[in-house]
Design a protein that fits this description.
Elements: H1 3-6, E1 32-36, H2 41-52, E2 59-63, H3 71-77, E3 85-88, E4 91-94, H4 96-106, H5 117-142, H6 145-160, H7 175-195, H8 204-213, H9 217-220, H10 227-237, H11 246-252
Parallel strand pairs: 1-2
Antiparallel strand pairs: 1-3, 3-4
Helix pairs in contact: 2-4, 2-7, 5-6, 5-7, 6-8, 7-10, 10-11
Length: about 260
């Protein structure tokens, strides 16, 4: 079965964003809830996982604007006051990769980790490397971007060459792919718009990966960011270029 055929996502009407005065949903009433921001890349990871496994009816969304979260979220739901978090079976859990694994292990739907031990170990290595990868790209944004970002992206190109197929584990779409998708989405926009740098040039594996990722309904349903906002956010965060009213722009794009 193809990856697209395995994708259980279906179109859905997204839950309106909760504001600072929105009433808290009942806690631990038997409903499984995913607390997110539609523009947060970490939350997007878990949202893609939910969608791919066909859990859109089973896991309800509680979306926030990160600038104006209601007080009850930190006070009564998740003291870390971060997204994503998951309410399930009488407890609250956080951290995006942990939640991706939890959904894959505890809910029905297509498996997002392989049975093969060697492939599973490789997937775990890729998951563990995500923070390092993001850190390397962010460091490049602060330096000579065109020269410094190449080695960071080359890591993905090399990783994608390990198995034949468009994804990190070959034909199988996995949590390893999901972990990188939201960040590649944003990095590709920023590097192209600001530096005219094409991250897929000379990287056929990465180009094929992005092409196949963009065919997935589970991912396409999570695309909520405006490319202009991505450019402004990263430009302001890394002091690359300044925009009119840049202070307000930075406040507006707390997490993209």
């Amino acid at each position: 079965m193809s990856t697209a055929a395995s994708d259980k996502a279906t179109p859905e009407k997204l839950t309106p964003v909760y504001g600072p005065t929105s009433e808290q949903p009942p806690l631990f009433d038997g409903t499984t809830r995913l607390y997110i921001s539609y523009r947060c890349p970490f939350a997007q990871r878990v949202l893609i996982t939910r969608n791919f496994k066909g859990l859109q009816d089973e896991i309800k969304l509680v979306p926030f604007n990160l600038r104006s979260r209601p007080d009850w979220y930190a006070e009564k739901v998740y003291s870390e006051n971060k997204v994503p978090s998951l309410e399930h079976n009488g407890k609250i859990m956080g951290e995006s990769i942990d939640l991706m694994k939890y959904l894959d292990s505890n809910f029905e739907g297509p498996s997002l980790l392989p049975d093969d031990a060697t492939k599973k170990q490789f997937a775990e290595e890729l998951l563990e490397y995500t923070d390092t990868f993001n850190g390397n790209v962010y460091a490049a944004f602060k330096g000579d971007v065109v020269s410094d970002v190449g080695p960071a992206v080359d890591y993905l190109e090399d990783a994608l060459s390990k198995y034949s197929g468009p994804f990190f584990l070959g034909d199988q779409f996995s949590l390893a792919d999901i972990a990188y998708i939201p960040f590649i989405e944003r990095f590709e926009i920023f590097l192209s718009e600001v530096y005219q740098y094409n991250i897929t040039e000379g990287r056929p594996n990465l180009a094929a990966w992005i092409q196949d990722i963009n065919k997935l309904e589970s991912y396409n349903l999570t695309k909520q960011i405006d490319p202009k906002e991505v450019v402004e956010y990263y430009s302001l965060r890394f002091l690359v270029i300044f925009f009119n009213q840049n202070t307000q722009a930075y406040v507006s794009y707390t997490s993209i």
